[in-house]
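Ticket #4471: structure output looks truncated?

Reporter: J.K.
Steps to reproduce: submitted the chain below (189 residues) through the standard prediction queue, then opened the result file.
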Amino acid sequence: MNQKNRGEMIPMANSEAAIPKAYLAGFEVFRPDAAEEGRRLKALCSEYGFQGIFPLDKDIKPLPSRSATAQAIFEGNVRLVRQADLVIANLNPFRGQEPDAGTVFECGLAYALGKPLYAHLLDARTMEDKLREDTDSDTGLYRDGMSIEAFGLPVNLMLGVPAAIAEGTLEDALKLAAADFRSQAASSQ
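Returned output as attached by the reporter:
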């Protein structure tokens, strides 16, 4: 997978001695046990030398309207991404064949802020391979009549190019990120 951010100096949001903060972008917030899952994912981050930040790690009180609540959640998540040193995204399909839209936004925000972006996918086959069954062999078009990106990436190029993608779970992405951070620390000494 493309690993554009790998090898670049990883800016720390905090002091050099601080534990790197990893924002965990993903659809886990929609699970019935989201708070418990967040604690589990953050504990896994600790095992690899990161402080996990879960999207529910903000204090959002019920507001008078749904739109006000949505605005507060949006602002809170943006604030958490800004506080992080890197973002690790779950790009597995959510309610269809594409990643969660909120996760995709957070990836774009992280990139725009210059934060290293890591991701994990259980199925890292190329888009062509994943969609082949529903692709017309004569035209090469997907069942919706549209072309399929053919860049050898497992997700849309706007995610596949800037992210270092690990095939597997969050733990696999953490291993990749930890190796990068160790390498950077060793090269800066």
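Triage note (M.O.): checked the attachment and the full token line is present. The chain has one domain: 21-187.
Status: closed, working as intended.
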